Amino acid sequence: QSVLTQPPSVSGAPGQRVTISCTGSSSNIGAGYDVHWYQQLPGTAPKLLIYGNSNRPSGVPDRFSGSKSGTSASLAITGLQAEDEADYYCQSYDSSLSGPGVFGGGTKLTVL
Amino acid sequence: EVQLVESGGGLVQPGGSLRLSCAASGFTFSSYWMHWVRQAPGKGLVWVSRINSDGSSTSYADSVKGRFTISRDNAKNTLYLQMNSLRAEDTAVYYCARDSAQWLGAPLWYFDLWGRGTLVTVSS
Fold it and tell me: B3 to chain A: which residues are within 8 Å by CB?
């Protein structure tokens, strides 16, 4: 069981908007630690998608956005495209663990 | 080209050992904190270990503490993970990942560059 909780799956039609939630606790997201998001296309390594809650690395389309509030964070994808079909992971830091680099369990995005 | 390339994975029996390597190129390897992250087949990402830029500070997930050792050779631009007393539950693709913290005294705990991974299978 992951320290950060994500829905196992979400889906949407091309052009639609979807959101993926990431719920933590007072020792990670709620303690003020940043949330980061990764996209993992089938058979490939993860790729940094959002860092510091809402910042996009160079080259990431502005269709992807992140936000954080309280003990949760969200990734929003607008104008859904077929190539967005992938697994998405949130990640943060947890002060209560000796292994502090915690990930969510991942969310499979299906583009209908 | 900026990249990380892992090697050293393979099939090993329970209780055995394996050393993974991660060759870095295209950037100043010695200035970055580095991590190992693993992914069991069909499962999610799990952080394993991290090391600071000069190799003097390390930390581990509880699941591998005492069995795995992270190290680096900045002269060879290479990160290592020595894995001992391997168990079936260590079966995974192991990724090396670069922390975004460059020339900093603490990691930022997000990973802006990943290798393609190397598969470790622990089975008799």
Answer: none
